[in-house]
Amino acid sequence: MARSKRKVGAGRQVPSGGSPRGAGAGEVSREQAEDAVRTLLRWAGDDPGREGLLETPKRVVSAYADWFSGYAVDPREYMRRTFEEVEGYDEMVVLRDVAFESYCEHHMAPIIGRAHVGYLPSNKVVGISKLARVVDGYARRFQVQEKLTAQIAACIDEVLKPRGVGVVIDSEHQCMTTRGVHKRGVSMVTSRMVGIFRSDARTRAEFLQFIDIRGARAI
Ligand SMILES: [Zn+2]
Questions:
Q1: Are 215 and 189 in contact (CB under 8 A)?
Q2: Considering its fold, how many domains does the chain have in total?
Q3: Is position 155 annotated as part of the catalytic site?
Q4: How far is the CA of 154 from the centre of ligand 1 (A)?
Q5: pLDDT 10s digits, 145-167
Q6: What are phi and psi of 123, to 5 degrees?
Q7: What does 92-111 look like in DSSP terms, one character per residue?
């Protein structure tokens, strides 16, 4: 178990241990990132030199490589391999409850939520796991929820060219639950409707009925 865990971590890191984006010239080194964590530990009032914290900068930087692995991928690439033989299937395809973790770009705090993705194919459909990968590809970056919602919809629209796309995201922002107003159990819902999902109320209603969400905040 521990071995396979290490393998996953190692697979995500670039050889130099640089940022998830890769180790291009001028990028921050792993050592610099670890130093930044030590600075924050000191600033918080602790001693980065005490035993319990010695390995922490290393672990935090490895965690960042995982949490922000989205910068290294182009989610549109996940969609390129489409399956066109759909035997005339032209009804809505909906993937609901895609769990994701993202990070708010204002506080670098987790956004934990679920995405619901639907589209009405024209002549192309895509494997449903690809839709989930698109969600992760954009979620694993610093985000604002409205942008995340719009990026997922735009990606599907651009590559599949369907008759319409709908994306609804429902999530909890830890910058709101663990600090500031400290309000737990508050979820934020955003939606992006494209094509027939936007122009046709019945299509939109059908999608919202599928995912069982009412009153999504349109953007
Ligand atoms: Zn925030």
A1: yes
A2: 2
A3: no
A4: 23
A5: 999 999 999 999 999 999 999 99
A6: -135, 0
A7: -EEEEEEEEEEEETTT--EE
